[in-house]
């Protein structure tokens, strides 16, 4: 039960920080949520792989017996079944170290709903960016934190934690959620705790829809601003409105082709894409089911995140050149 108490308190504290609505608190809340989710996934993986040593030993024994029983269909069927349960050493290492591998593994084994698995991977990747960045916009960070809060509750609601009650632990914080020794026999206890946590922050379906929309709209606002700043730095001959989109997706690190050459190539993203992405975000208002919202969010982000990363990389390169020129002008 200690695992449940630790995770519940961590998610609860993240919710308290999120309600302060300031960037330092939102950033810390996001990191707490990511850690809570990773702990739950790690415990789930431990549970799913707990018989790995037994299965390996059985596999070895079956191979020893194969020369004597290999002609029996029942024996070969049992051997195939055991071998299917054995996880390779490389996969076991990845499960220990890699977040994405944990998520995919649990989704494959029906221990994590596919929409939750998809959005968890995206939020964890966003966490990696967040960890190293200090200049953050609340308009983007706040909805992202609220989304992760809800996703953490979704993972918690279906979490298979270790159900043991220690007489040396008081479990005071679990008691606040109405959890007692009888919870050992309550299959819905994690869903009960998750529901209370969601209520504490007001994370109902309408709030989730708003958070998803606000986060995507905030990122599209940032993307439009980035494109605008890149366009301002372009030479005058790149005067087609779509040239900035072509340059972002070109091999600009080596050499930008002249306009006539650049325009011969087909690129997946041009100016008309931004209004399309805005309409896709607006379509979230038509969805009333939580997991369906997660899936739509993931699909929209999949469509623009590659261009978003390319545009940011180009803008940062331009900014470095400008700063270098300023430094040289000042004699640094």
Task: Enumerate how many helices there are, as a single number.
Answer: 15
**H/E element string?**
HHHHHHHHHHHHHHH
Q: What is the overall shape?
A: globular
Q: What ranges have pLDDT less than 50 throughout 5 or more consecutive residues?
A: none
Q: Report the end-to-end length measured between terminal Cα atoms.
A: 59 Å
Strand content: under 5%
Secondary-structure content class: mainly alpha
Helix content: over 70%
What multimeric state do the chains show? Answer: single chain
**Quantity of strands, as a count:** 0
CA radius of gyration is 25 Å
Mean pLDDT: 88
Which features does this protein show?
mainly alpha; 2 domains; single chain; 332 residues
Structure description:
This protein is about 75% helix and about 0% strand. The N and C termini lie far apart (about 60 Å). It is globular and about 75 Å long. It folds into 2 domains: about 1-50 and about 85-200, no CATH class; about 205-330, no CATH class. With about 325 residues, the chain is mostly helical. The chain is built from 15 helices and no strands. The mean pLDDT is about 90.
Topology of this protein?
Layout lengths: L1 H19 L2 H26 L3 H18 L3 H13 L3 H9 L1 H10 L5 H19 L5 H20 L14 H5 L12 H13 L3 H29 L9 H7 L9 H4 L10 H10 L7 H40 L3
Helix pairs in contact: 1-2, 1-8, 1-10, 2-6, 2-7, 2-8, 3-4, 5-6, 6-7, 7-8, 7-15, 8-10, 8-11, 11-14, 11-15
């Amino acid at each position: 039960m200690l695992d449940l108490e630790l995770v519940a308190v961590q998610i609860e504290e993240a919710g308290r920080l999120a309600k302060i609505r300031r960037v330092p608190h939102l950033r810390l809340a996001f990191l707490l949520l990511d850690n809570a989710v990773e702990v739950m996934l790690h415990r789930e993986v431990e549970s799913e792989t707990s018989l790995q040593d037994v299965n390996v030993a059985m596999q070895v024994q079956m191979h020893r017996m194969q020369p004597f029983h290999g002609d029996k269909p029942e024996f070969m069927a049992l051997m195939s079944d055991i071998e299917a349960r054995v996880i390779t050493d490389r996969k076991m290492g990845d499960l220990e170290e890699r977040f994405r591998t944990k998520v995919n593994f649990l989704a494959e084994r029906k221990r994590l709903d596919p929409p939750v698995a998809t959005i968890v991977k995206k939020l964890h990747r966003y966490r990696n960016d967040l960890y190293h960045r200090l200049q953050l916009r609340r308009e983007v960070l706040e909805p992202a934190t609220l989304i992760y809060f809800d996703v953490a509750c979704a993972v918690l609601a279906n979490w298979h934690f270790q159900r043991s009650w220690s007489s040396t632990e008081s479990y005071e914080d679990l008691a606040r959620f109405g959890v007692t020794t009888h919870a050992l026999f309550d299959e819905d206890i994690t869903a009960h705790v998750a529901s209370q946590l969601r209520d504490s922050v007001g994370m109902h379906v309408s709030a989730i829809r708003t958070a998803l929309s606000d986060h995507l709209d905030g990122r599209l606002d940032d993307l439009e601003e980035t494109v605008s700043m890149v366009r301002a730095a372009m030479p005058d001959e790149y005067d087609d409105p779509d040239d900035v989109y072509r340059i972002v997706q070109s091999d600009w690190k080596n050499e930008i082709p002249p306009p006539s050459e650049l325009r011969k190539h087909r690129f997946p993203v041009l100016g008309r894409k931004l209004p399309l992405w805005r309409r896709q975000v607006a379509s979230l208002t038509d969805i009333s089911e939580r997991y369906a919202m997660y899936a739509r969010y993931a699909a929209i982000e999949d469509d623009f995140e590659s261009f978003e990363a390319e545009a940011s990389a180009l803008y940062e390169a331009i900014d470095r050149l400008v700063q270098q020129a300023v430094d040289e002008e000042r004699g640094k």
